[in-house]
Amino acid sequence: MANNIYSPRQQYVLLITCLLVLAGLILFGLGSYITGFLGAGILFVVFRPWYKALVHRRNWNRYVVTVGILVFALVVIILPFTALILMIVNRISYYAQDTSQIMSVLHTIEHKTGFTFTNEQTVRSLLQQGVAWLSQRLPSLASSVLHFVVVIGLMLFTLYFMFTQEGSFLKGLRRYLPFRDGTLEELGESLKNNVNANVLGQALISLVQAVLTGLALLLFKVPDALFWGTVSFFLAFVPVLGTPLVWGPAAVLKLTQGATGQGVGILLVGLVVIMNIDNLLRIVLARRIGDIHPLITLAGVVLGVNIFGILGLVLGPLLLSYFIVLMRVFERENLHRPAPVVEIQTPPTNEAHPQP
User: Fold this and answer.
1) Both 56 and 164 in a single domain?
2) Any transmembrane segments, and where (predicted)?
3) For the chain, how far is it from start to end, CA to CA, in angstroms?
4) Are residues 109 and 170 in the same domain?
């Protein structure tokens, strides 16, 4: 039998290299379908407390509970979320084709201020660029219906096996992830806090703000109040900058149209009610479902949306949180690592012939 030409260390390095190359090829081949697996991981964290309560505590059939969770996720989360995205995409496409309403508002602002800063060609170009940007972020516009259905199917299919084979799935994570048990617990806690804060908590805050924004716009007779209320739901995921991007321009629109009372009313509702509701809910929910610093959320959203699209609202802050956790682990292990002992050798002395 011929001897292998590689040393054990070279074999080890080549094995790791092969694994990394194959993993990169797999990720590259999955392409945009990887969002289905990432979405399954998020839903697994969201619904796992329900699964544990029904399967582990009440001894319900795990397959029946899993199918129920999948149906609930499809009917209550996925389909309504898809409908909201489609509504936004269709309306933005309409505004991109017909710029007369937007130009009318801009001309009114120019007349009030005395400055000319727009033309129809510029506005149309900006709107088309905005639609192109959204087409890369919103899955319903970025791909065909078949591609979208495949992504949803992969997500539900993966979620099914994550729940029905929960034990082997979690055991495999602990076995193959290159972290100690303490680090895995920290990463798991970070994942739980991020999902709770940026999915459950932020979705609730965004829903409340969207309802209040839509009602305020409807009360003060802003056109397309339902549409802009829906837009505010997605914008509310961005801290500080969220809903003011909707009710602020609406107030300016009313002021430029001469409806001073309605414009001031929108500003008062936005500043006094909507903004304070946001702050109050964040304080209450931070104690119950996870506390994530707003700076991490803001920077994570900007980072995540560019990489993962709409899922970046959750995955971006998660990446930053994991980076911070790993930095803490690195710092802790380096501080506790004993310093190397350096032996200082003294030159030998001549015992036989001492100096006088």
Assistant:
1) yes
2) 34-51, 63-89, 141-163, 199-220, 226-247, 259-277, 297-327
3) 71
4) yes
